[in-house]
Amino acid sequence: MSALPAAGPEAAPSRPVLMELKNITLRFGGVEAIKDISFDIREGEIRAIIGPNGAGKSSMLNVISGFYHPQEGEVWFRGRRRPAMKPYQVARLGIARTFQNIALFDGMSVLDNVMTGRITHMKRGIFAQGVWKGPAEREEVANREAVERIIDFLEIQRIRKTPVGRLPYGLKKRVELARALAAEPKLLLLDEPMAGMNVEEKEDMSRFILDVNDEFGTTIALIEHDMGVVMDLSDRVVVMDYGRKIGDGTPAEVRANPEVIDAYLGVAHD
Amino acid sequence: MSADFLYGVEVVLNGLMAGVLYALVALGFVLIYKASGIFNYAQGVMALFAALTLVGIMDGQVPFGHLINAIFGTDLHGFGWTVPAFAAILLTILVMILFAWCVHTFVFRHLVGQPPIILFMATIGLAYFLEGVGDLMWGSDIKTLDVGLPQGASLWIEDSTAFLGGDGFYGFFIDRLDVAATLVAAVLVAALVLFSQYTKQGRAMRAVADDHQAALSVGISLNFIWWLVWSLAGFVALVAGIMWGAKSGVQFSLSLIALKALPVLMLGGFTSIPGAIVGGLIIGVGEQLFEYLVGPSIGGATENWFAYVLALAFLVVRPQGLFGERIIERV
Ligand SMILES: Nc1ncnc2c1ncn2[C@@H]1O[C@H](COP(=O)(O)OP(=O)(O)OP(=O)(O)O)[C@@H](O)[C@H]1O
Ligand SMILES: [Mg+2]
């Protein structure tokens, strides 16, 4: 499938599909948060998910990262159907994420927080670390180096020893991104990475996201409310409204889609 | 130096040694509480159960012997062998790991997200259940535990410190078992601290203690970590059980060592490893000094309650414990 030119209306680059969601339906009791939605995420692209409050965007991200389990539909990752998985198993597949309401380890330093992002890369267990000191130490050093690179990359050297709980909101978001990046994920999921930031912080974050995508070639799926940001950053956009998908395509296509204009762009938002 | 002062020093030394053991027992609570929010009422019974199991294995006792005899009319008492202490300790560790797995898999896994009071109630149930299982498995008679730790007063310490004082001072009177227990406990406490600071699993443990969602998102299995902390708590319980058991026999009262940990937790906070260590030392020294200085004039036996009074007074002044962060309510 991946060898075929881009299927569907979107004029996206014909890169291989990394993740495909097929007919996902997710219910909470009587509420249908996601209604029969299908879309794909291609390798190396920045895929945005937009829509009004309560549209089901976070729910979709939670399905991808294994926090929610859809009642219907299939999740395909790297050409294989993914069975129902726990979030930690999804993380071990190489899917990292941030949260809409920031989930950091407040009691730990920035460095330790970012270090936890490497847990999936730490092979040596308790006994190796106690008994087999050499390789375990080498591994620790390698992990340290990877973490320091990311800390440099996101320009948070100054705060590396600061307990995360004391940081202002904007920096917390950045540390959360650093932790996700530390896993060197194949797919990076960002739930409103710029929410609540001022203009300058938003610009920084946009630049980081573009750089991550550029330099590491990381595939990114992100949820964002700021339309300007979405148009600038993303290769393709999925538009959701009341749990349904109402648009899918390049930013230009989506912006021209009448249904999207009605449902989303027309509505005054935040 | 005056003899009185030197006896005071001896009291402090003994207090410090008791304190290290209190710290160890308190750590068992802290490990589980931090990672899962469960206040484990069964910690003391776990120590009793671990000690019973160790004695049972060493003596080659048939587990559930009474039960089997009652049902099948057999007359089993022992396998007829004895197991060396070291091997028996390893086997007991395995039993405690299995116990941890059962506790998590059959009980607490199903209670994730329940309010703390429900979790606490479940541990009370667990405590009595485990006490019953211990009785059934190994019998309820008082047992002696001898894993080869040195016992009795150390003449060497006594002789070599006698010169410090004058005529009225005969050197520090220190029990060798206390010294051994202190060393073992100190090593274990240090090992636990290193483990939680520098290993993958330790880091994961701290992560789970801090935020479950975030921990999941970086690839940590909560179930594994919860099993791990129950196993560690079981191991801590075993060590505490060995020390107390060697001192005063393995019997029901051994489970009361948990009561010694409570004031330590009140003092040190329920989530702080350094708090448990410093708290243990303060309580250990505090209660011995109080008994030595004030006890005689008010009739003695102050060890039973002084630790709680100290902890209570402290709690009123610093509700968050020694090292806890002050909680300022957001309005
Ligand atoms: N864990 C949950 N339990 C019950 N209902 C939920 C849960 N998570 C989401 N929902 C419901 O699903 C719907 C979609 O919510 P979701 O958080 O996915 O929206 P969203 O598009 O991310 O909104 P926002 O822009 O406000 O973040 C809402 O009606 C919400 O109440
Ligand atoms: Mg959301």
UniProtKB/TrEMBL annotation, chain A:
Transmembrane segments: none annotated. Keywords: ATP-binding, Nucleotide-binding, Transport. It comes from the Bacteria. The keyword ATP-binding applies. GO terms for molecular function: ATP binding; ATP hydrolysis activity. Coiled coil: none annotated. GO terms for cellular component: plasma membrane. The keyword Nucleotide-binding applies. Residues 19-267 form the ABC transporter domain. SMART domains: AAA. This is Amino acid/amide ABC transporter ATP-binding protein 1, HAAT family. It comes from Wenxinia marina DSM 24838. The lineage of its organism: Bacteria, Pseudomonadati, Pseudomonadota, Alphaproteobacteria, Rhodobacterales.
From TrEMBL, chain B:
This is Amino acid/amide ABC transporter membrane protein 1, HAAT family. The keyword Transmembrane applies. One of its GO terms (molecular function) is transmembrane transporter activity. InterPro entries: ABC_transp_permease, BCAA_transport_permease. It comes from Wenxinia marina DSM 24838. One of its GO terms (biological process) is amino acid transport. It is a multi-pass membrane protein. It is found in: Cell membrane. Keywords: Amino-acid transport, Cell membrane, Membrane, Transmembrane, Transmembrane helix, Transport. GO terms for cellular component: plasma membrane. Belongs to the binding-protein-dependent transport system permease family. LivHM subfamily.
